[in-house]
Amino acid sequence: MNQDYIKLNDWSIIEEGFDKENVKSSESIFSLGNGAMGQRANFEEKYSGPTFQGSYIGGVYYPDKTRVGWWKNGYPEYFAKVINAPSWIGINVLVDGEPLDLNTCSRVDNFRRELNMKEGVYYRSFIATLKNDKKVDVKVTRFLSLDLDEVGAIRYEITAVKEDLTVTFSPFLDSGITNEDSNWDDKFWNTTSISSQGNQAFIEAHTMKTNFETCTFMDCQMEYKGKIQNKPDETEEKELWVGHAYQQKIEKGSTVAFYKLGGYTVSRNHKGANLVEAAKEVLGKATKQGFDALLEAQKKAWEGIWEMSDITIEGDTKAQQGIRFNIFQLNQTYLGKDSRLNIGPKGFTGEKYGGSTYWDTEAYCIPFYMATKNHHVARNLLKYRYNHLEKAIANAKKLGFTNGAALYPMVTMNGEECHNEWEITFEEIHRNGAIAFAIYNYFRYTGDYSYIPEMGLEVLIGIARFWHQRATFSKQKNKYVILGVTGPNEYENNVNNNWYTNYMARWCIQYALEQLDKVKAGYKEDYDRIIGYTKLSKSETDEWKEVADAMYFPFSDQLGIYLQQDGFLDKELVTVEDLPKSQRPINQKWSWDRILRSPYIKQADVLQGFYFFEDHFSEEDLEKHFDFYEPFTVHESSLSPCVHSIQAAKLDRMEQAYQFYLRTSRLDLDDYNKEVEEGLHITSMAGTWMSIVEGFGGMRIKNDKLSFTPRIPKEWDSYSFKINFRNRILKILVDKSGAHFELEGDHEMSIRLNGERLVLQPVAKNPVQ
Amino acid sequence: MNQDYIKLNDWSIIEEGFDKENVKSSESIFSLGNGAMGQRANFEEKYSGPTFQGSYIGGVYYPDKTRVGWWKNGYPEYFAKVINAPSWIGINVLVDGEPLDLNTCSRVDNFRRELNMKEGVYYRSFIATLKNDKKVDVKVTRFLSLDLDEVGAIRYEITAVKEDLTVTFSPFLDSGITNEDSNWDDKFWNTTSISSQGNQAFIEAHTMKTNFETCTFMDCQMEYKGKIQNKPDETEEKELWVGHAYQQKIEKGSTVAFYKLGGYTVSRNHKGANLVEAAKEVLGKATKQGFDALLEAQKKAWEGIWEMSDITIEGDTKAQQGIRFNIFQLNQTYLGKDSRLNIGPKGFTGEKYGGSTYWDTEAYCIPFYMATKNHHVARNLLKYRYNHLEKAIANAKKLGFTNGAALYPMVTMNGEECHNEWEITFEEIHRNGAIAFAIYNYFRYTGDYSYIPEMGLEVLIGIARFWHQRATFSKQKNKYVILGVTGPNEYENNVNNNWYTNYMARWCIQYALEQLDKVKAGYKEDYDRIIGYTKLSKSETDEWKEVADAMYFPFSDQLGIYLQQDGFLDKELVTVEDLPKSQRPINQKWSWDRILRSPYIKQADVLQGFYFFEDHFSEEDLEKHFDFYEPFTVHESSLSPCVHSIQAAKLDRMEQAYQFYLRTSRLDLDDYNKEVEEGLHITSMAGTWMSIVEGFGGMRIKNDKLSFTPRIPKEWDSYSFKINFRNRILKILVDKSGAHFELEGDHEMSIRLNGERLVLQPVAKNPVQ
What we know:
The structure is a homodimer. By secondary structure, chain A is α+β, with helices and mostly antiparallel strands. Chain A has a domain of 281 residues: Beta-galactosidase, Chain A, domain 5 (Distorted Sandwich). Helix content of chain A is 32%, strand content 25%. In chain A, strands 1, 9, 10, 11, 12, 14, 15, 16, 17 and 20 form a ten-stranded antiparallel β-sheet that branches. Chain A has a five-stranded antiparallel β-sheet with strand order 8-7-13-19-18, with no helix packed on it. A four-stranded antiparallel β-sheet of chain A has the order 21-28-29-30. In chain A, strand 15 and strand 16 form a beta hairpin. Chain A starts with 11 loop residues before the first strand and ends in a 9-residue tail after the last strand. The interface between A and B is large, with 47 and 47 residues.
């Protein structure tokens, strides 16, 4: 834990008191997003201190030319980066001619930020004493509308504290922005037009190379004592900037409110349309409602989100705030409306890991979205990969695979691989398995089989073809082996027979073969289309089967455990406990070769396989493997604690499970990794949700039915969560006395609780006690 | 083979006819060097076509900030680059006002370059018809003086072919030069002063960061019909440039000669001195002799070098030219006068592999220098590493090693590691073994033990400490293992128990222990000093011994061979012969992961160990391992064919040995790797020498005695070479009838020929027949 300035509160994230040291960290933590755009918590008014400016538009990226020390064949040419977009939030403020700038003010009192997660609104307030000794009380309200997702709204209120004042608001748009992360200092944006019309202004700019056209817009008005001014006193246009000015004399004790609506219209959502006209249209809708109505609608929209996705924890505010922050950020990042979008590791909160999509989506995020939204959201995430199938086939081809073998990218924005370390790009191929697993998981949870004949089967075939070709036959072992891979534990590179990868490979082939049979039997037309398209033959699937049947798995007879990879037992097996604290985190203290030689595990690897395929193994097996591997695990990936929390809970090791839970849920609030300035760890937040629902709640799907084995950490009085299971809404509350269910709808539902069948009656008949 | 425009000739490299496509290639091949400075074969006069300009000063480098895609702890901050130095060769020419530029001339006839290797002189001549239709016959003679190694000399002669002409020579110095290889477009040079005095000019400039001060200088004169003009008609100074102009009317059929002496004085050789004064002093010496005397001295100096290092081959001009080119380039690069210098893979012929020193020096170059120079030269190369011991200890420390463990760098200029791929920098640690082996090899060959107590033992201790710490104990194997390495075959990364590396590690420890005993017994004072300094204890050396005694070596019982690394037999063992030609070279056709998974070997790995330690293995063993590994070897390293040539010869597979020989000896002349433009492969040239002397000649040192098992390729009538063995000069001539020896000096000498003892009488008594 690296910071503790965030106040504990069930529903809000709160900072009190102005500390310049926290500005960049808070800019991340108080970020706003609405699934279509995002905004770091940068100040509206000028701020001359250190800051990390970030405005992001979903799906708008730049292919930054790859930078490497030593080029290797097969490396991608470009790294697709979510980029800082033209800024719409700026409102410079003059008080009697003196700029308001918290970095240079004489005093800042009562500074407070609140990210009200219940409402989806960000509040900021302070009393500033300026260098000219004038004193203003400022209150800012900001949100990105969920209803009109191209629009953000700001209300900026200034009260004269001790004398009459003249206040000038200078709202502006600025396309002269840069990226902190840029390989070659390329210019990412080209500005094509700047215009002002009355109280509105527009900057049209397009990204270089990708040519995403955007219009950044604003619409302002000022209100003082009931009188509204919606024509600026001045208008100024510069090369990459347009600004207006509104001036108002205000009396001591009175308040002037300045309203700014702003945001983006983007060519990808307005094909062929005039983006300025499109901006005017959405501004028309927004101004027609007005700020207050938009704000109310925002609260209502978030109420709807929370209604379905909230998790309550009684008796542990730290834990409660943590889980809500995670759920809030996930919903800010992705709402599942657009199958061209996905969930970037930093969402809309920073630039790092610039390419948007990782296997995190399939391995961690899909369960959250399946349970807290309707199945269309998860289906859209699956469809995203289906739409990238041709690119995945091209990625594989680049590495020498043929015949429609598909290798999904490690990092991508448009389906092309972006990453450029050979040990990841070319070798961390287990990601392909997660894509297939998500298809299985989606059907298991939602019962919606239609995705498989329509799209999924083609993905499964491409993936099976990849594994078939990637495995090679070892005469010595008389088995198929998979050489030269990096497993989920990235602290091992270029190993042979990573158990997780081999297991995944075999499962992918077997699952593809099963689904081929199933689609053939039940969806003849789809089957014929797909066979025609993929030219899949019996002899080819026989070869797949041969590989799957004879796959090699490293195993220690002596220990009775699967080995993470060939040769794992040759390492010096000193547990993390016996590693001096001064040596950790090893990724900061050790050279890479030392990490690679060590037995230390960055995140679940064998145990990730036990998580995905738990039904294949007994609890004794899990215990044996958990006891062997967890002691070597340093959890230096944000994706590690959640899986271990789930498995510790399953093994009824509740204290350990609780510790893992805290670490995953407050990773960013407490800045465990000393990097929250750069943005939030969005995808691991879905793991936090899994820790409660699958870990403590023990939720599983077994034979098309929900199953629970609820446990509760001793620190908690109770916790509850809600899930959408095949359009049935079920709330589960767990307290010290046990589990309590609240089923919506009209029909009863059969579940399993601790292995026993239980028939739940709808809510009227069986209220939560 | 990629080019064949070089004419076959025993003593010269010749190009005839002007082809712009060959300019950059010839700029490499016709390069000049004198051990202290080097010059690519760039034209003196303006050339507006594609060219790669290169002037280099031994030991003057720039630490270019590292560029990587993804930083890893332990990476070096800088890559030390031999850099392009201010240019001294330029002489622009105007003919009746029209610039002479071979790229834009109307015609170029009789163009010819000759690198006369016997003389160490580079000749260029042509007849140019300019755009103004004037015609000149040009002859240029250039060399870098071996005697005055700060000076190069040019004679530039122009004859008026068909009418009277006015010729203007504009000699200049230019510090406005750039590097083709630059990570961040840094400015490498800072020019501090420019001056002209009479017919001399000077540019003082220092490298940024490293602050090597240099003075680039010139001294010119023009001669026409016996009249000498040594005052320029004009002088011009610009910001980074100084030029003079000499004008002369010449009559049809007559010749004007322009002489330019130029070069560098450098602070590293003139501590605290005024470099302009130093330049004047060396110019004084040179002009006192004059061009013709310098030229004669040059020829004489090269005669001396050839006297000792020439290899003759009768009956095969292609092979003869190849070996002389290799020997010539090695002598141009390094003459052993300065222990601060070493042998860069491209010598003074290009920028690539910017950091100068690789393990190539110890593994490949030292045998050549030991046999063709006196032992001080090889000793200087060893001393270079001794001087870097502290830096090697620092390199190891950076990776987490302690207690004075030393890891010599993969690439370096000043002892610090420069390379930044983890799989090389951190893992290709076998290089440490080559440093120790060179110490052993030096003593074996020269009999000069003094290096070991004076310096070598400390190096051996640092290296043994490294191996002791780098090996870890495998409980499973009950042996010490070395995990996560890259062997000499760089087509495998991060493997466990690379046989070569493990074998080297054990040998290094054993050899260090032996030498500790020997120094203790015979050099008590040195021993005490070293023990005091290193704090080496009995318990520590006992631990070393334990590691060496229990080192693990991967071995296949079934095949009876040592395995290149753990798991090698799990690969798909398809030989190179069965690999489609279209797939080669695999380093251009395949992605890196595919290369890594394949069985293909870039250069000798297990066989490199069999080369170094041949006495440890029977010939049957060698045969078995050669037969197993060579068929998987793609020889995509310039260092590969020579070792295989030697071993094929040993196994009496002469046709194979001859093919390997041709490939190594004409690598650059025939441009096998399509990259000769970038510079020559200097270090592998020493391997070519070994192919003849150790391969065909079968020269070994056994029990302090020379031993030969001579063989001759069927394509050759005879071959001969000369060696300096412990200050005895012996010439060996091998023809179809057998071997013939010519021993210099007064005393007889006992050698072994084909295993039989033979006493050689000095030359007078036993002339070559």
